[in-house]
Write a structure and sequence with these properties.
By secondary structure, the protein is of the alpha/beta class. Helix content is 35%, strand content 20%. The protein has 2 domains: 216 residues, FAD/NAD(P)-binding domain (3-Layer(bba) Sandwich), CATH 3.50.50.60; 107 residues, Enolase-like, domain 1 (2-Layer Sandwich). It binds flavin-adenine dinucleotide (FAD). The site of flavin-adenine dinucleotide has 24 residues, from helix 3, strand 2, helix 4 and helix 5.
Length: 331
């Protein structure tokens, strides 16, 4: 029987309830349904938990479940790591780092470095990126193995509520978690057949000279960043969203300044910081930044916003000088 001996039955029911709940964690309830208890106790499933999709969500669930002693299998039709590792966060950030060198090289001269010439080789970058991605694949596979999670390669489809067909093989589980992520949506507009998605971007043989991006996404108290140059990052409400929700009491504070780094070569590079504040309570509703280290700075500010910090709380802080982040405390 797949049920781990290290857990008593109540603990297991407790965990499975959490995993089954459509809203995720809904509080410390226990599964009291007698029929459910009997079925779970006497059915001989291959796994306690079978996860479809080894992306960020599936891997996190597997990690948490095994820490409770649950017997887990995870099915993946493509490479482990999902969008984040294979064509999302990691390749995207590496690409932004690669692009950033251009500005660093040109600034180096104004800091006393001698002039030199360098050029960018897309295929070398892609090879280095692929090597890093493969290293992360291996780390995940090693981790799953060491944690006792079976990594099952193949496309899963449901046979019934407790059975998956994974490339022709039927595998059963007490609980099946669907963590299949999302697919890029291509709108039905003329010329759409010429477009690519991030999946194809990182497979391109040559670097495109220009690209236009359609689409984007924006979640409220989740800080997000855009890996571009200069970097952009945001958390909370935009000015327009705040006005819609709180009306005219909304106040915005902004500052545009030249970061110290660019001051030696006189480059017209600016950083923009903006706070959106609800006027009556002075509560900070959103923070937005375009400029160097924006993602590092905004994710720290997110904590303060989540805790309900006011503009006054920001003003009472003393920033680290000289830094870009200090400007947030003197808007
Ligand atoms: C270009 C890009 C950049 C991004 N940048 C960032 C960023 O900087 N920061 C950030 O936080 N987030 C970023 N994201 C978002 C992040 O990648 C996703 O939020 C995250 O990958 C979602 O994880 P997931 O596990 O839900 O889904 P996925 O990562 O999509 O994983 C789902 C997995 O399920 C597998 N699967 C699907 N159906 C089946 C099936 N029937 N059988 C077996 N396996 C199946 C898929 O192959 C896939 O591996 C980015 C996304 C993209 C596309």
């Amino acid at each position: 029987m797949a049920i781990s001996k290290s857990l008593d039955f109540v603990d297991k029911s407790f965990l499975l309830h959490i995993l089954r709940s459509p809203k995720g964690w809904t509080g410390p309830k226990k599964v009291d349904d007698k029929e459910e208890r009997l079925r779970a106790a006497f059915m001989n499933f291959d796994y306690d938990l079978l996860i479809i999709g080894a992306g960020s969500a599936g891997l996190a669930a597997a990690k948490r479940a095994t820490s409770y002693g649950v017997h887990v299998g995870i099915a993946e039709q493509a490479d482990v790591g999902g969008a984040c590792i294979n064509y999302g966060c990691i390749p995207e950030k590496l690409m932004a780092y690669a692009a950033n060198f251009s500005s660093l090289f040109s600034n180096a001269i104004s800091y006393g470095w001698s002039e030199f010439h360098s050029s960018f080789d897309w295929s070398k970058f892609i090879a280095a990126k692929d090597q890093k991605v493969e290293q992360i694949h291996q780390l995940h596979i090693k981790y799953l193995k060491e944690s006792g999670v079976d990594f099952i390669r193949g496309r899963a489809s449901f046979v019934d509520a407790h059975t998956l067909d994974i490339d022709g093989k039927q595998i059963t589980a007490d609980t099946i978690l669907i963590a299949v992520g999302a697919q890029p949506f291509k709108p039905n507009i003329p010329g759409i057949e010429h477009t690519i998605t991030p999946k194809e971007l990182f497979q391109m043989k040559t670097l495109p000279k220009h690209i236009a991006i359609i689409g984007g996404d924006y979640y409220e108290l989740v800080p997000i960043s855009v890996s571009c140059i200069p970097e952009a990052a945001t958390v909370g409400l935009t000015e327009a969203q705040a006005l819609e929700k709180f009306g005219k009491s909304v106040q915005c504070y902004r500052e545009k300044f030249q970061p110290l780094f660019y001051s030696l070569n006189g480059q017209d590079e600016k950083t923009l910081i903006k706070l959106v504040v609800e006027g009556k309570s002075e509560r900070v509703l959103g923070a937005h930044m375009v400029g160097e280290s924006a993602s590092e700075i905004i994710q720290s500010i997110a904590v303060a916003i989540k805790l309900g910090a006011t503009k006054n709380d920001f003003d009472n802080n003393i920033g680290i000088h000289p830094s870009s982040a200090e400007e947030i405390f003197s808007l």
